[in-house]
Amino acid sequence: MNKPQFSVVIPLYNKEQHIIRTLNSIAKQSYAASEIIVIDDGSTDNGPRLVSECNIDNVTLVQQNNGGVSSARNTGISLAKHEFIAFIDADDQWLPLYLEEIANLVAKFPQAGVYATHYQVIEPGNKYVDAKVNLKDVDPTGELLEDYFDVASKGDLPFTMSSITVRKSLVNNIGNFPLNEPMGEDQDFFARAAMASDIAYSPSIQSLYHRDATNRACHLNVPHEECPFSVRLSHQAMSANRSQASKDTMLRYSAAHLCHIAKLNITGGQFSRARALLRDPRCKLKPKHRYGLFIWSWIRQSLTLGQRFKNHIS
């Protein structure tokens, strides 16, 4: 098999503080990317100018009107010249061996359509935290994920948009990223890819996911109801001719999503909305999370009301 060539796709929107760090992490790869496509999705800051002046080989800047991150990724996919498309967000980083690790996975698992690695999360305060992926005794040279939904529903996602590479032929088969969905578009893609293809996975940490970055979409677009990808997945789980075990893992995946959205709403002070999400019958598949979040919502609400009363009488 010929050595794989990688097209890197980066959606860019108002990330002037981070984009050069991201590009430098790609330029420092031990296995060079064949092309780096940056899709500027209507940025209003200096990010596009910094890209155009970065003096890094094989970088192409494409500008379009703002259409959202899915639109930007879809544009990058359409322009990619090579079979293997490596995604990375404009505020994340690769460690120097990321593409080399992916190339090794391609050689070991040529039948797969998705290739991914483990990752670290960078929290505010420059705190590095390993993602808590529910996998044990993984072959250090990589293996095929047995059940993506089972793994993802019992811990952190096994990979992020910045630690995944896909075959362009797979995208042509399953379709592009969904438009006009400000949150969950990545999980929609992961789920459809998992149902259509093998996923080759390396436990080696080769990507850094920055939660300390500015202008993060998950902070700007906290949903108050279940995201469309989860609704679609639940319908597929119940309507498709699947084993009960397969249905359970898919529904537990949706339950994990509901619990996550509930947690975001509790953090944002939307306690009633959070509890409405937790009352969904699927959340019973995540009993510890469900009951813990119910209790946390009442505690947070009581503390909030107490603080308001204190402020009122002072």
Structure summary:
With 314 residues, this protein is α/β, with parallel strands linked by helices. It has helices at residues 19-27, 47-52, 69-79, 98-108, 148-153, 168-174, 185-196, 217-220, 228-239, 244-267, 271-278, 287-313, and strands at residues 6-12, 35-41, 59-64, 84-87, 93-94, 114-123, 127-130, 143-144, 164-167, 199-210.
The total of beta strands comes to 10
Q: How many separate helices? A: 12
Helix content: 40-55%
Please indicate the percent range of residues in DSSP E strands (runs of 2 or more): 15-25%
> Can you summarize the main beta sheet?
10 strands, mixed
- What's the overall geometry? globular
Mean pLDDT: 94
- Give the distance, in angstroms, between the N- and C-terminal Cα atoms: 74 Å
Write structural notes for this entry.
The protein starts with 5 loop residues before the first strand and ends with a helix. The protein is an alpha/beta fold. Strand 1 (6-12), helix 1 (19-27) and strand 2 (35-41) form a beta-alpha-beta unit. Strands 1, 2, 3, 4, 5, 6, 7, 8, 9 and 10 form a 10-stranded mixed sheet that branches. Helix 7 (185-196) packs parallel to helix 9 (228-239). The longest helix has 27 residues, at 287-313. The model has no long low-confidence stretch (mean pLDDT 94). It has 12 helices and 10 strands. The protein is globular. It has helices at residues 19-27, 47-52, 69-79, 98-108, 148-153, 168-174, 185-196, 217-220, 228-239, 244-267, 271-278, 287-313; strands spanning 6-12, 35-41, 59-64, 84-87, 93-94, 114-123, 127-130, 143-144, 164-167, 199-210.
